[in-house]
Amino acid sequence: MRIVVLNSPMVYLSGGQVNARDWTLWLKRRGHKVTLFAMVAGPLAEEVRKAGVTVISDPALMADKPDVLFGFGLNGFMALLARFPDVPAVQVSQSWSHWEHFPCPLPQVVKHVVVDQINAEMLANEFGVPRERIHVVYNAVDMSRLPARTRILPPKPQRALVIVKQDGPHLEAIRRACASRNIVPEFIGYPIGRPHPNPLEKIVETDVVIGTARTAIEGAVGGAAVVVADQRGMAGLLTAGNLQHFRANNFGREILTTAVDEDSVGAQLDLYDPADAAAVSKFMRHVGSLDQQIDQIESILVEAVANFQLPDIEQFRKGLSTYLALHLPRADEASPRHERSFSGYDLIRRVPGLTERLVLAEQVEDRLAMLEPRLAATEARLTEMRQQLAATDGAVKLVELLKRLPFASYLRRLVRSKNSETAR
């Protein structure tokens, strides 16, 4: 088959970008004609190109019509399907929390691949994708990149490798928990300026890996004990008992329910069991190989091509109009416009200038708080002045009344008469 694999960006070793690289290279090894489409091409795209795979960032540059489109990225699918509207597509959803993983509304997308149960739930019950079109394919590891393990797990852990997705206070909690147990931690990852070109090389030299999702899988395959945790929270030590549950949730979001602090991390490190870690590693090597994952993907792609029927032009127009209505920018409104945006989901990032406005509002609130004592004193002074004014107003009214009384004219004549006598 001629296959276009898409993902953007293709710059660094995140889960989705590693998947796209591995799928591209392994599908090529299986004899398929593969092109990688990446709107932002970087080092990972260059690695694929050096392996003899064509890489494009503009679908108009591709002359040969593909048999199927496969990969991640809502905007990328729209670009490819505008170029090849008569080709079936299989879309991958790897993140529950980002709109780029929401289903493409065009009818050419006939199947969806998800990495865990929460993404399957999202597609089925938030976007109405029929269950029979959703396929769960767990993340896997390219075993050819895995070095031989150089270290036997000791009775008690001595080294820990922390694979960082985001900097934060959880790192210091991990550091303290390790230090109190004489475990030497090493931190690697882009957010802290210490990326590693192949984390598997570090994993085979350590006793405990602390990370989530793909890094947790790599830790287990690499023979280390794994504490599933990151800045979002902690699931705990990966064991033979919880392995299936953790794997069904991609060692990620849904199971990270415990706060990461020194005590909670320490409690999980104290559960370290080298024999159980070895059993987990053996199982994950058996079921978590990229070779088996590619078998599943090939089967899904073949079925998508075999059963594809060219959609009615009206279906295509409706899907396109839905996409444009959600994604074209509108003045100061969030784009894309999905229900999650309207309900306040990730609102700070989606409304331009909202962060600055909130800061300004807080500054105004602080200023008002400082003015409150002065406003209260001013109000008291105004009350006093109103009372004085009311008393003065009463005296003025009395004088006016006296002017109207009958003897008032007599008093005036009397005053004038006295003045005349004085003058003589």
Tell me what the structure shows.
- The chain is α/β, with parallel strands linked by helices and 424 residues long.
- Helix 1 (15-29) crosses helix 11 (290-306) and helix 7 crosses helix 10.
- It has 16 helices and 12 strands.
- The protein has helices at 15-29, 43-50, 74-83, 117-126, 169-179, 199-203, 213-221, 243-248, 262-269, 274-287, 290-306, 313-327, 339-342, 347-350, 354-404, 407-423, and strands at 2-6, 33-37, 54-56, 68-71, 89-93, 109-114, 134-136, 159-163, 184-188, 208-211, 225-230, 233-237.
- The longest helix is centred in the C-terminal third of the chain and has 51 residues, at 354-404.
- The protein has a 7-stranded parallel β-sheet with strand order 3-2-1-4-5-6-7, with helices on both faces. Strands 9-8-10-11-12 form a 5-stranded mixed β-sheet, sandwiched between helices.
- The chain has 3 domains: 2-140 and 290-311, 3-Layer(aba) Sandwich (Rossmann fold), CATH 3.40.50.2000; 143-287, Rossmann fold, CATH 3.40.50; 354-417.
Q: How many domains, in number, for the residues?
A: 3
Strand content: 5-15%
Uncertain ranges:
none
The biggest sheet amounts to: 7 strands, parallel
The separation of the N and C termini measures: 134 Å
- Cross-sheet strand order for the largest sheet: 3-2-1-4-5-6-7
Percent helix: 40-55%
Q: What is the radius of gyration computed over CA atoms, rounded to a whole number of angstroms?
A: 36 Å
Notable traits:
alpha/beta; Rossmann fold; five-stranded mixed sheet; 48% helix
